[in-house]
Amino acid sequence: MSTTSPATAFSTALAAVRDGRSVDEAAGELLDLLTPQERLWLLDGDMPFWRGMADTMTNGYNRAPIPMGRIDRLGIPGLLFADGPRGAVLGNSTAFPVSMARGATWDVRLEERVGTAIGLEVRAQGGNFFGGVCVNLPRHPAWGRAQETYGEDPLLLGEFGAALTRGVQRNAMAVVKHYALNSMENARFKVDVTADDAALHEVYLAHFRRVVEEGVSGVMTSYNSVNGEWAGQNEHLLEGVLRGMWGFAGVTVSDFIFGLRDAAASLRAGLDVEEPFRQQRAQYLPADLEEGRASWEDVDRAARRVLRTQLLHYATRAEAEPPVEVVFGAGHRALAREVAARSMVLLKNDVVGQAPMLPLRRDSLGSLAVIGRLADMANTGDHGSSDVRAPEVVTPLRGLIEALPRTRIVHAAGDDPVAAAAAAADADAAVLVVGYTAEDEGEYVGSDMFSDPALLALFPPVGDDPDGQRFASTLADPDALQVNAAGGLSAGGDRAGLRLRPVDAEIIRAVAAANPRTVVAIVTAGAVITEEWRDAVPAVLVAWYSGSEGGRALADVLLGDVDAAGRLPYSIPASEEHLPAFDRDATAITYDKWYGQRLLDRDGHAPAFPLGFGLSYTSFALADLTLGTPDGDAFQASVTVTNTGPRAGRHVVQLYGRPEGVDPVADDFPARVLLGFAAVGLAAGESARVTVPASTRPLLRWTDAGFVPASPTAVVEAAAYAGDPDAVVAPAELKLT
Length: 737
What we know:
- By secondary structure, the protein is an alpha/beta fold.
- The protein is built from 22 helices and 28 strands.
- Helix content is 30%, strand content 19%.
- The strands form seven sheets. A six-stranded mixed beta sheet has the order 1-2-3-4-6-9.
- It comes from Planobispora siamensis.
- It holds the Pfam family Glyco_hydro_3.
- Belongs to the glycosyl hydrolase 3 family.
């Protein structure tokens, strides 16, 4: 055993790495200083299981960092977990708009700024390991946790996950999740998801690969089973794909509590850390090692990765320690407002009288009716593990009152179409806020999971453990649980349907009949089918779960202080029949390549609104698309964008590829795929040459020999949305061979 001072072992290794020493060598030398027991301590959480469970249920989830693998004797800081992704779950942090809303900005620079802010808030509150880079693909819009991811397209998901990672990792290790095929909520602990290699690599793993290439520190596995093996102990995914194919060198961690089913099998398969408490590994690994079900080589492999990841992070993170005042500070609140306003998607804006319904004009608004149960509700998303307990949330009603001090504002909150219509009839305009809450969609953590024998078998025995007895007594008394404010239990789950409540549709039609100047703002994460009421109103805006400053941002957009600049990060079908089959209680399901815009294109169904769609308060024209020479699988395109309208605004240039000669049905490959995108702001009449970074990867198909072009050439078009009839086509085809 080395005589290195226990207090300086990690700091000495860290200084050596900063001076140019190989991080692998430094991690190996640290590993040599650990006792066998300390090596095992690196492989799970530090808190005893029942103490952690009791604390979570009574005091709230993740209010302080959850420590894993901290070794005080050698000064090893450990992985100090903070959840996300709409902000730092720790303490009382800034609630940014949910990830799906941020995806609607189509602006990775903006997302990187969000990542930097979140990383600062994590670090300022003692965390270093942010488990909030969620890039799961929502195969069906009913998925309850669609709000935690960025959209339906693998390229969009990958670029936004990479941007968040870049921002966070200036101050904290970023963790991408949930690897893999996690897009069912109610059945997440029991469902086996089957997918062939082509679907896996072309669709469901592509965005994880991109985030790994960006240098993400950690990968969190999902709860579900993949092709017959639980993701947390799936050697093909962990050692085969993640490390063998992609070269991932960071740390792998399980999802919380139910993320693995066999301690030894998970270690052999390449899972480094069981999160978040001392649970199955603490109970079983010593005997597993003694009896040969796992080896000390497996232990050292995982321990070395844990040490290496920490050393690399501390050697490269920003030097300055952020003050605690950065948390929910003025700068981060302003950023939350900016992001929320940029995210809102204008779906419809008909002319009423002599001008489009939006933006509203302050000078013509003597009175305004603000209608709906959600208009004055602090509604930032679900109450599961992503819940951010912001000190303050500005509601839509408050935002409009602040922005319109001279306007008489009437609020009709109840589910009463007659009363809502009466309020609207006497106003110059009406704004309806409709949609969903945490009761309708989100992470599902219900009390019934604590009665499932398969899940209960993963818990250590309670025995005479006072914390275990406290947990059991708390669980038996739901009134004692700190539910919403603490992020304990959540209703949520997968959505039962894709439409608004019937009473909401009634209110919309009643209000529109009483006042032709009616705007509907939809609070949602996933797609909402609007066919039964959309024709009745002139303006429809997707307002999302928009965070701490969402009410002010909504006023910014409705009043035209900010352009309507959001674009849909997914397609919205005209009918549920145009979507893949979805059974939220299924125990087995097969995922193929077909969902969203790709499925609509293949089957010839016109969407209500296509991927990338969104209106602006001005207009834009594209011209002169040229393509650069590919460098590996990356290339650049250039296009001239002109603001042809009367005011400043923002546009999103979307680059799509159409592989020539490919038939979607016969060839099992999409007719059109997203290759790249870029957002640009322009003054009225201004033109700019915009460079769009792009990738040829979406034009490749998976074979037994790896990726090959789906076609030797592809037509590339610059568009405002998928299938845009005004798209500009590059004069030269993109050559892929």
